[in-house]
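dumping the sequnces here before i forget
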Amino acid sequence: MNVTNLFGLIRTFELDSWVDSRGALVVAELAQFAPFDCRRLFIIHSVPSDATRGAHAHRECHQLLIAASGSVEVHIDDGLHQKVVVLDHPRIGLYLPPLTWAVEREFSADCALLVLASHPYDPADYIHDYDDFLATGSLPR
Amino acid sequence: MNVTNLFGLIRTFELDSWVDSRGALVVAELAQFAPFDCRRLFIIHSVPSDATRGAHAHRECHQLLIAASGSVEVHIDDGLHQKVVVLDHPRIGLYLPPLTWAVEREFSADCALLVLASHPYDPADYIHDYDDFLATGSLPR
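..and the predicted 3d for all of it:
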């Protein structure tokens, strides 16, 4: 499994894949690339091509993103650095630690974006205002 | 979240889904429907329509299956009962306890089958012979 460190703790993974005449199997041993216990799963699908999702950060929640099908752009920002990561194959995983601002754009019609999260849903964990994010994100991490 | 008990501990879930102009978000709080900690994730994709996958049981490993895109038939068998479950929407989850024989067939071309598993990969956990499965499965559970 190849790991690419982007900035801070944000990193992408190229997961192991086994391909034969019966198709492809992508495998992720979560302890190797998700530094959290998975408590919540969500799947984002059927997103219009001109729609955006996300546009928030989490105070405590870690996330792992994989496009199980199709493709999507993830615009990530830790308050100091910005990058666009394209998820366009189930082999590519993107780990987002808490206090990462993320916006998803350019969903392909067939995109099914899988997100594994470290915490149950808690509205108080979300930071929806970018200036609030910058203020919160400037705290020591 | 609706739960349908099939037989034994095998059950399907209709997960919560939030649909608006930005697409659909399927959410699973794992503690509510996965009676295990998720240690491993795999995604099966690009499966030819005439191929089968699975055809084994696990001694200890619990699994949760979701077709994140497309559709697939899951033929399940606990040694006493058999059933075919069609996974054709990200809202449908299928929980398979240990000692369930499962075969996946009729993958649609766009199917991305997500499997969450309770254990890291261990070849000794797999039962690949159906008669061995019946012999093992007849033990008290």
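Chain A has a mean pLDDT of 93.
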